[in-house]
């Protein structure tokens, strides 16, 4: 933010955009409106007329059902509130929460680290129920089958669903009970119940999408193949080793314990082999992990018995990327204010 900037500008992956996205502009207007109401002396108040320059870099594909808006708008919200409200440590203020909600529902759930609950009765309120340390063995594997923009935005799909789906109304009746059960499973680190709740809820969510008229079809053939693969893998293993959940897109988020991670990656390597000119190892991107899990040799001898009991066909060249991560912290301020500009960077 600087008096030298002629207007607000937005850069996405170092490319200047023709205009600022509507939600981002709404967010900027709101923080300025709220700040102008505060009784500040003239020296502080003058910067309200300064323009801002926002740079966004994201390691996730955008608009493909991976909730990239979560990291983007939670970081922007905490960055702007730090600048305008003059907080020094990235404190989550009520204004910050409200700004994040303007960005997206995913963003308000991403202001805090750990396991976060978003309260539907107060759309601008979220709370960390358990810190990331509550379940240190829990890992997340994200499989990117399709990084292209999804056919309908989450916002537009939700409007259509609320207007046309009768299943949606039934779904709402059980949400509170599911949240209570899920919180208990996390508290007890009960992976079996945790997985059962997560997968059933994902299935129901997409059933509601199909009940919407015209239907909203986010899952593709690879999504459906993977759902069957997970159930056959768990059945062959005699225990639940992995759980899937799909947001508004075809790409699954997989929950798995560290002890089963290497085996699961071998399974993915077997059923979703890369094209011949690439190696599976090259498709893996780690986030928040200290190392890339040890990859076995080209053979999959350690899971041969499991593979024999899985009937799903091999899907060559269908997997674009594998992202490995775990439960982490919320946005953090990494650059503070400088002498010539009011600058902040949140991650």
Task: Describe the fold and architecture.
The structure is a single chain. This protein has twelve helices and twelve strands. It is of the alpha+beta class and 347 residues long. The chain has two domains: 9-130 and 329-346, 2-Layer Sandwich (Ribosomal Protein S5, domain 2); 133-326, 2-Layer Sandwich (Alpha-Beta Plaits), CATH 3.30.70.890. The strands form four sheets. Strands 7-8-6-10-9 form a five-stranded mixed β-sheet. Helix 12 (304-308) links the parallel strand 9 and strand 10. Helix 1 packs parallel to helix 3 (68-84) and helix 3 (68-84) runs antiparallel to helix 4.
Radius of gyration: 22 Å
What name does CATH use for the topology of the largest domain?
Answer: Alpha-Beta Plaits
How many helices? The count is 12
Q: Give the helix proportion (percent range).
A: 40-55%
Distance between the termini: 17 Å
Mean pLDDT over all positions: 86
CATH superfamily of the largest domain: GHMP kinase, C-terminal domain
CATH architecture label of the largest domain = 2-Layer Sandwich
Strand order of the largest sheet: 7-8-6-10-9
Catalytic activity: (R)-5-diphosphomevalonate + ATP = isopentenyl diphosphate + ADP + phosphate + CO2
Keywords: ATP-binding, Lipid biosynthesis, Lipid metabolism, Lyase, Nucleotide-binding, Steroid biosynthesis, Steroid metabolism, Sterol biosynthesis, Sterol metabolism
Domain Mvd1 C-terminal: 140-334
Family: Belongs to the diphosphomevalonate decarboxylase family.
